Each structure stands twice: as C-alpha cells, then as structure tokens.
C-alpha cells in the first residue's frame, strides 16, 4: 500500500536530495542552518466549529476551497492500492462528490491547487502534473516535475511543491522552472515528510506525513514557527470508525488542509476519514 511505500521513498528521496541537489543552476536550498538559535515551534491550539461527512473511499491527497467550492484530489492506482485517483468537486454539507475527473491507471494522484483560472494536480512518482481548466474541469496541459509530487499550494505568484523531504520547491507556473528551494527546519534541524500544503495569511501550512501534526512555516526563512497537534480528533468525533484497520495500519492518516480566503475558514480531513472538520487555528 502507498502508506508503507512512501516511508521507503522518504529515505531514498532525502538521500538523493542531499547527494545531488539537482536543481536549476543558481538555485540552492534556503533556510536557517543555525538550528541552535531557532526557537521551538509554538503550540497552535485549534477549535472545531463544524463537522461534515467525508467519503471514506477517498484517499485524500489534496484539499482546497476556491470561490466557495470544495475541491479534492485523491490517490490510488492498481500497482499500489485499490483506491482511485481523481480530482473533483465535493458538496461540503453532504460530503458527496458531485463531479470527478479520473486519472489513467498508471498515475497516482497527489496534491491540488488553483492559480488563476487553472487547477494544478500532481502525481506521485511519474514526474508529471496535470492542469485543468477550472470552469470546465477539462484537462488542458501536462507539466514536468523534477521530484516526486506530494503536496502543492501557491503564494499567488509561484507554485509551491513538496516531495516528502524537508524541501519546498517554488516553481514558475509558466515554464515550471525552479525559482528557489526552501529548506524547512525547526529547532532540531530539517523537518522531513512535508506533505499536503496550504498557503494561509502569509504562512505555509503543511501536514507532516504519518503524524498528527500540522506545521506552520515561515516562507521567508523556512522555519517552523508553529505546530498543531490534531491527535485524537478522529477518535473524538468518529469513535467507531477510528477502530477500523485502515486507521490502525497507518493508511487513514491526517492529510488535507483547505482555506477559504473569503470566509477565513479552515477545513481539514484525512485519508479515508469519515469526517471533515471546519476549525480555527490560534
């Protein structure tokens, strides 16, 4: 299954990045390497405002809100799992998928984001992403990736991509060249397993894969300035579901952050979770 495979790829990806760091000439990882002088991340508190249903067959890789519409991207392929890869629209109150665009079987879908009138979707190991016309959800273009694709967001200028390492890659959305690489660290050093991303009020929020943490990252220096521990959230609101094997074996992990800039609302969920939560972070 992908959960265990990703763990193997994390180590391999981290080794390759440290050994080769193959990026466009003139671009290097940026971040504060003087870890002894970096403050420990502040504890971020959260409040649950609303709880909505979520499709338990959705292996969530990307979650976002644009103009009041919730979008989700999922992962799966016959080579790795029985889950399906697609991107589509979700009705928030009911949790029902109202429309979806399936990926071909050879692709394992990953994170999604919207920039302008286009929706961007990553794939895991295919070194390729897809671009959709947001109005019609018709696939209009493919784009190259130099790394694995995990999470993606945008600062309204660049695409920001994670690959499971401690690096975030800023990509030019026109030619997909690497603008810069941001090394992410906390007081203990580089922070690996960066996964689903969301840009909120000037900061990058990231799921740390196979953990209960959402990290708040300062994009000016790559420092993790805050950390929200979402442990126990699913157990509290879906006690019976949380006992299922898919959660205990590590498949049903926290993954998915969406921000509605118009309402200042934040939504989170997890892979195969039965619930989606509207929360505040403080």
Outline the structure in words:
- The chain is globular and about 50 Å long.
- The strands form six sheets. It has a five-stranded mixed sheet, with no helix packed on it. A five-stranded mixed sheet has the order 2-21-20-19-18, with no helix packed on it.
- Strand 23 (265-270) and strand 24 form a beta hairpin.
- It is mainly β and 282 residues long.
- The chain contains three helices and 24 strands.
- It has helices at residues 2-20, 233-237, 245-248; strands spanning 29-30, 42-43, 46-53, 60-66, 69-74, 86-90, 97-102, 109-115, 118-123, 128-133, 138-144, 152-154, 159-162, 167-171, 178-183, 185-186, 189-190, 194-200, 203-208, 213-217, 224-229, 254-260, 265-270, 275-281.
Summarize this entry quickly.
This protein has 282 residues and is mostly beta strands. The chain is 10% helix and 45% strand.
Descriptive key words:
282 residues, mainly beta, 5-stranded mixed sheet, disordered N terminus
Question: What letter string, H or E per element, gives the SSE order?
Answer: HEEEEEEEEEEEEEEEEEEEEEHHEEE
Summing up helix and strand content along with how strands pair, one would put the structural category as mainly beta
Q: Helical stretch count? A: 3
**Oligomeric state of shown chains:** single chain
Largest sheet: 5 strands, mixed
Number of strands: 24
How much helicity do the residues have?
under 10%
- Average of pLDDT: 90
Integer-rounded radius of gyration: 17 Å
């Amino acid at each position: 299954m992908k959960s265990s495979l990703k763990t193997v790829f994390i180590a391999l990806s981290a080794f390759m990045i440290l050994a080769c760091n193959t990026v466009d000439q003139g671009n290097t990882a940026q971040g504060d390497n003087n870890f002894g002088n970096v403050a420990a991340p502040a504890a971020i508190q959260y409040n649950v405002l609303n709880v909505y249903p979520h499709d338990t067959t959705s292996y969530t890789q990307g979650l976002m809100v644009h103009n009041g519409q919730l979008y989700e991207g999922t992962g799966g392929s016959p080579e790795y799992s029985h889950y399906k890869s697609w991107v589509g629209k979700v009705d928030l109150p009911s949790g029902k998928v109202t429309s979806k665009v399936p990926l071909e079987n050879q692709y394992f879908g990953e994170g999604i984001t919207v920039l302008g009138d286009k929706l961007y979707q990553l794939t895991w190991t295919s070194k390729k992403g897809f671009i959709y016309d947001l109005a019609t959800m018709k696939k209009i273009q493919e784009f190259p990736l130099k790394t694995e694709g995990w999470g993606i967001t945008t600062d309204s200028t660049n695409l920001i991509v994670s690959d499971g390492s401690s690096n975030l890659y800023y990509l030019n959305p026109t030619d997909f060249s690497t603008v810069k690489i941001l090394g992410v660290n906390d007081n203990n050093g580089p922070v690996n397993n960066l996964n689903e991303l969301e840009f909120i009020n000037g900061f990058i929020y990231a799921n740390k894969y196979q953990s209960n943490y959402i990290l708040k990252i300062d994009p000016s220096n790559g420092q993790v300035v805050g950390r929200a521990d979402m442990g126990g959230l699913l157990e509290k609101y879906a006690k019976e579901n949380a006992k299922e094997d898919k959660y205990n074996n590590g498949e049903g992990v926290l993954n998915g952050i969406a921000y509605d800039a118009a309402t200042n609302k934040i939504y989170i969920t997890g892979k195969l979770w039965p619930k989606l939560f509207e929360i505040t972070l403080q």
